[in-house]
Specification:
By secondary structure, the protein is of the alpha+beta class. The protein has three domains: 2-63, P-loop containing nucleotide triphosphate hydrolases (Rossmann fold, 3-Layer(aba) Sandwich); 70-115 and 189-205, Beta Barrel (OB fold (Dihydrolipoamide Acetyltransferase, E2P)), CATH 2.40.50; 116-186, OB fold (Dihydrolipoamide Acetyltransferase, E2P) (Beta Barrel). 15% of the residues lie in helices and 34% in strands. It has helices spanning 2-13, 24-30, 48-53, 58-63, and strands at 34-38, 41-46, 70-79, 83-88, 91-97, 109-114, 120-121, 131-141, 146-151, 167-171, 182-186, 193-195. The strands form three sheets. The chain has a five-stranded antiparallel beta sheet. A five-stranded antiparallel beta sheet has the order 7-11-8-9-10, with no helix packed on it. Strands 1-2 form a two-stranded antiparallel sheet.
Length: 211
């Protein structure tokens, strides 16, 4: 109710308002322009959708989005001008194109980021999609959508919402999948984010229309 009241007041007055919040949902729904601060330092400035689709670094990527982005610790296997191949335990090597690979070398520690809505259940025969085997640990039925928490061991996430190494999948539909179910989970390489050793985003800008 307070978000609606403030947004309505802003529209009536037509004045610039500065609203400080730790709630990223408030920031995303109310702001025309967001300034993301980290320990007093400006990390990124932009519209809500721009920051969501194109976070400047791993901090912004993890701060904006609910459920939180899935992060995978990985290594750069090979590095070319704008193409990087990365691998992690339990995940086949992935080739990412259009990468800002300046200063990145083979063997460097990197982080792969995948939003929960970009993960999907795939068939084992879908060899064109990077995928991993998993088991469902928890199901949240939210009516219009279903959130799954799956164990992809040995593949693990870091700094997850659940405080575990489980992956979060957000399905925009009602699902009958139950706890204990075995799933093959995959994603499109173009939906993944790559963060360098310093946390900077290395993937090319994603169009807002595809988010």
């Amino acid at each position: 109710q307070m978000r609606v009241e403030l947004s309505s007041l802003h529209a009536q007055l037509g004045s610039t308002m500065i609203y400080v919040t730790h709630d990223q949902v408030e920031a995303m729904t109310m702001a025309d322009r967001i300034v993301v601060l980290n320990k007093g330092r400006i990390e990124q400035v932009g519209s809500p959708l721009e920051l969501y689709a194109n976070p400047a670094n791993i901090f912004v990527a993890g701060f904006l989005g609910a459920p939180r982005m899935n992060f995978i610790e990985a290594k750069a296997v090979s590095v070319e001008a704008s193409t990087v191949s990365v691998a992690a335990a339990g995940l086949p090597a992935i080739t990412l194109d259009g990468i800002d690979a300046g200063g990145l070398s083979a063997g460097d520690a990197v982080t792969i980021g995948i939003r929960p809505e970009a993960l999907r259940v795939v068939e084992p025969s879908d060899v064109a999609t990077p995928a991993f085997s998993s088991q469902v640990r928890l199901v949240e039925q939210l009516g219009r959508e279903t959130v799954l928490y799956v164990d992809g061991s040995p593949l693990q996430t870091t700094n997850s919402d659940s405080g575990t190494g489980n992956f979060t999948l957000q399905l925009n539909k009602v699902s009958t999948v139950g706890v204990g179910a075995a799933l093959q989970v995959g994603f499109e390489p173009g939906d993944a984010y790559l963060f360098g050793p310093d946390g900077r985003t290395l993937t090319p800008r994603k169009p807002l229309a595809s988010v």
